[in-house]
Structure to design on (74 residues):
């Protein structure tokens, strides 16, 4: 089952970005996931499979497509 992602989720990746930040906001969903660095505003596209490998944890969750806030995972 694919990882459940929502727009505006903030994720922490295993490896840091050269700007020093390791936190990214999800800005696009589909086969490729669009991410924006919270340190320098750089945008990247990762395949869903690559993001699942690099994901360390969810920092905060966005809202579901129905507009319902998603509960923070423990």
């Amino acid at each position: 089952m694919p990882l459940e992602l929502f727009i505006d989720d903030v994720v922490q990746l295993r490896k840091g970005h050269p700007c020093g930040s390791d936190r990214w906001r999800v800005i696009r969903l589909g086969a490729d996931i669009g991410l924006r660095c919270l340190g320098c505003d750089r945008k990247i596209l990762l395949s869903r499979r690559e993001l699942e490998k690099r994901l360390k944890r969810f920092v905060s969750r966005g809202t579901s497509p129905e507009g319902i806030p998603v509960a923070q995972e423990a």
In short: The helical segments are 48-54. The mean pLDDT is 87. The first helix runs from residue 48 to 54.
